[in-house]
Amino acid sequence: MAILAVAAADHEFRLWNNCPFQIWPGLLNNPNKALPLNGGFALDKYQTKSFRVPDGWAGRVWARTNCNGAGHCETGDCGNKIECHGAGGVPPVSLAEFTLDGWQGQDYYDVSLVDGYNLPIAILPIDGTFRKVGGGQYDCNQAGCKSDINAHCPAELALKNGGGATVACKSACMAFNTDEYCCRGAHNRPETCKSRDWKVNYPAIFKQSCPDAYSYAYDDTSSTFTCHSNGGIKTGYVIKFCP
């Protein structure tokens, strides 16, 4: 049984907290996929933690901030607990998203700000674990958002703490809940969810700060990265907070 368990866990993830403060990463599996590390843990400043996931894994990773002893977090909270146990993070939150071993063995990964933003985040394939196919901009390169969007978040999108500081920036969909900004109803297709229908192009604020991250639901062409394993070595990824 132990041999089977080791063989199934093929992809390494390294979570690196490069922030000058503690964070609490959250992990969420897609349906019928494994949940790593019970879904969450604390990670001290400048520390790393590694874990492995099985072939075909899909899910997301995010950072929670300013969590208290009871597990309640100022951003990214998953229900007042340190181990999220299958609960997602309350937006606004920056997300690292993965679908591994897809069509022809290809991995897909991206950083999404569709649910808003709380911290800078980047995804980097681990040296020696991948091979490029085509060599384009989105082939095994770094995905992410290095900018501090909180510093210039519009007031109508800002999530503030008790001290009045902006700790996260909402998406327009979260802030206004309209079909136009949420890409639903008559706007639920790429050709109908367009900036011409937005009173203010809030997604452009996110895109200008972080051009390689998803800014709204149909922002696929400039946000989705792909990668392939290096022969018998499975792809591994670093998820870096405050890159």
User: What's the assembly state of these chains?
Assistant: single chain
Helicity level, as a percent range? under 10%
Mean pLDDT: 93
Strand order of the largest sheet: 2-4-5-6-12-8
Distance between the termini: 39 Å
| Contiguous runs where pLDDT drops below 50 for at least 5 residues | 1-8
Question: Helix and strand succession?
Answer: HEEEEEEEEEEEHHHEE
Please identify the structural class as seen in this structure: mainly beta
Number of domains: 1
Beta percentage is 25-35%
Task: Report the CATH C-level class.
Answer: Mainly Beta
User: What is the tally of beta strands?
Assistant: 13
Disulfide bonds: 19-242, 67-73, 78-84, 140-227, 145-210, 153-169, 173-182, 183-193
Keywords: Disulfide bond
InterPro entries: Osmotin/thaumatin-like_sf, Thaumatin
Protein name: Thaumatin-like protein
Task: Pick out its properties.
4 helices; globular; disordered N terminus; mainly beta; 6-stranded antiparallel sheet; 5-stranded mixed sheet; 243 residues; 13 strands; 10% helix; Thaumatin; single chain
Characterization of the model:
This protein is mostly beta strands. It has a single domain, classed as Thaumatin (Sandwich), CATH 2.60.110. It is 10% helix and 28% strand. It has 4 helices and 13 strands. The protein has helices at residues 2-8, 172-176, 179-182, 202-209, and strands at 9-17, 24-29, 48-54, 58-64, 95-99, 106-112, 121-125, 130-131, 143-145, 158-160, 166-169, 225-229, 237-241. Strands 2-4-5-6-12-8 form a 6-stranded antiparallel beta sheet, with no helix packed on it. Strands 3-1-13-7-9 form a 5-stranded mixed beta sheet. β5 and β6 form a beta hairpin. The N and C termini lie far apart (39 Å). Residues 1-8 have low confidence and may be disordered. This is Thaumatin-like protein. It comes from Aleuroglyphus ovatus. It holds the Pfam family Thaumatin. InterPro entries: Osmotin/thaumatin-like_sf, Thaumatin. Disulfide bonds join 19-242, 67-73, 78-84, 140-227, 145-210, 153-169, 173-182, 183-193.
